[in-house]
Design goal:
Blueprint lengths: L16 E2 L2 H11 L6 E5 L5 H9 L4 E4 L5 H7 L7 E4 L16 E6 L5 H9 L5 E9 H7 L10 H9 E9 L4 E2 L6 E8 L10 H13 L5 H4 L25 H11 L5
Parallel strand pairs: 2-3, 2-5, 3-4, 5-6
Antiparallel strand pairs: 1-8, 6-9, 7-9
Bound molecules: S-adenosylmethionine.
């Protein structure tokens, strides 16, 4: 019957389907789903991870953009009456509305072409998310967990680490997928902090400062901040203005943003 639903992987939807059962099991073990979870899978594809998730959590909700995959998923999982598929772009989905009673546990082998905007979109719902487990390009997982002063450290590292605990779990080789992607992949766990360890008084300002800082990686902090604060007295900054922005820790970015929040622009 599966042949009836022959599906050709679509590049524009970032479709690389997992075919390695050991890897799929390892991912599901890392997630550790339980029956009472409010589990959401982004991009179920042909249901490779979905099948194992459903065995442990039959009320799973999946979000899939490719409408051609929906009949196959509905057929394949017809014995799970609580399984729900939302045919939508996860980038536009109001995840908060799915967390009626419980915070969400979100999982997905994400389409790599949208992973960064999707992570930023999901961060806006962080108060309603218990945890997230994603397959991403390994390079993105490295960026998520990167430490100051390294090449991988950037806007994504600072903003995700500000909001979440980041735990890289294990790498996944290209052969685990069909078609095989050109890059290495890895699994990451993100757990939103109930409260950020170093709270910013104005999170939007923190984000703006981090953005300008990393647009100007080679400049000193003093010069990088000029577009935002042309009149800045650099001697008053809580961190040395001669440093490169990429050497600042998350806490130092927060200190900087909290100082800037006291300035007039
Ligand atoms: N989970 C399956 C697996 O592991 O074999 C498929 C993973 S594949 C890398 C990514 C999946 O996300 C595809 O099914 C694709 O159609 C879906 N997708 C792509 N863009 C999406 C979007 N914006 N919103 C929701 N799903 C999307």
């Amino acid at each position: 019957m599966d042949n009836f639903f022959q599906h050709k992987a679509r590049k524009r939807f970032g479709q690389n389907f997992l075919v390695d059962d050991n890897i799929i099991e390892r991912i599901v073990r890392a997630i550790g789903p339980s029956e009472t979870d409010r589990l959401i899978e982004i991009g179920p594809g042909q249901g490779a991870i979905t099948a194992l998730l459903l065995q442990r959590c039959p009320s799973l909700t999946a979000v899939e953009l490719d409408r051609d995959l929906i009949p196959m998923l509905q057929f394949k999982f017809r014995d799970y009456p609580e399984f729900e598929i939302i045919e939508q772009d996860a980038l536009k989905l109001d995840f908060g509305a799915l967390a009626e009673e419980k915070p969400l546990r979100i999982v997905g082998n994400l389409p790599y072409n949208i992973s960064t905007p999707l992570l930023f979109h999901l961060l806006t719902f962080r108060g309603k998310i218990e945890d997230m487990h994603f397959m991403l390009q390994k390079e993105v997982v490295d960026r998520l967990g990167a430490t100051p002063g390294t090449k991988a450290y950037g806007r994504l590292s600072v903003m995700v680490q500000y909001h979440c605990r980041v735990q890289g779990l294990f790498p996944v080789p290209p052969q685990a997928f069909r078609p095989a992607p050109k890059v290495e992949s890895a699994i990451v766990r993100l757990v939103p902090h109930p409260n950020p360890p170093y709270p910013a008084t104005d999170e939007a300002l923190l984000e703006r400062i981090v953005n300008v800082a990393f647009q100007q990686r080679r400049k000193t902090l003093r010069n990088a901040l000029k577009p935002l604060y042309p009149e800045l007295d650099a001697s008053k900054l809580p961190v040395d203005a001669g440093r490169r922005p990429e050497t600042l820790s998350v806490k130092e970015f927060v200190d900087l943003a909290n100082y800037c929040a006291t300035l007039k622009t």
